[in-house]
Amino acid sequence: MRDMTDTGLPFAKMHGLGNDFLVIDGRSTRVEMTPELARALGDRHRGVGFDQLALIEDSDRADLALRFWNTDGSESSTCGNATRCIARAELDRTGRTALTIATERGLLSACDAGRGLTSVNMGAPRLLWHEIPLARAMETLELPIEGTPTATSMGNPHCTFFLENVESVDLATFGPAHEHHPLFPERTNVQVVQVLSRDRLRMRVWERGAGHTLASGSSSCAVAVAAVRRGLADRDLTVVLDGGTLRIRWADDGVWMTGPTAHVFSGVLTPAFLEAAR
Questions:
Q1: pLDDT digits (tens, 9 = 90+) for 202-218
Q2: N or C terminus of the chain: which is more exposed, having fewer CB within 10 Å?
């Protein structure tokens, strides 16, 4: 890749089950990401558009490092589907079958799962109130919120509601009302979940800083953990999202997420756009 100050900034557009990402490889291109630039890039009319932006960086403790931004310009410590998409691209580029990825969440493992699928270990869930974090000490299995949702952290906070029919929920209203609930000082991802069987969950998701997305990897991991904790599901299950399905397995070494990825196109952001977005 060439220097962005002279010829523009190369990027890739990827998605996992319709959960879409703008990916910039900062290992060989000088990149100064700001909230203003992230918001400009996330505009689906005047920019590129994405659910999350991922920046690849060098790491002295892993094969690569990742940082993430939401469409509102805020940073996120983790993004499961973007991690899986980038892992797939890196596995294909290097010819390897496994690699390690450094994120704010910690070191994550990724591997080729066969049949075009990619697996990422998102690490162990965090279940204590101060790990999520919540505003005050309490049990996280059933929060004192109408609907008694479960709180989980997969590196970012999640609030999971178990309902009889998730299709009837107006996420545009329900999501932001709970994303900004005072119990979550750092805001939260919001999931509504319907248990179809002990190995199959139907989930819809509202992501903090992004809104309604067709899929979410970290949310899928969180709802699987919440369902197991509440005795509603087994540890190896399928999560059915608006954009497709993910297999989630809560193992002794962490929560494994497996599913398909897509690299849609590559392009170059013009110097004029980058200058205007500063």
A1: 999 999 999 999 999 99
A2: C
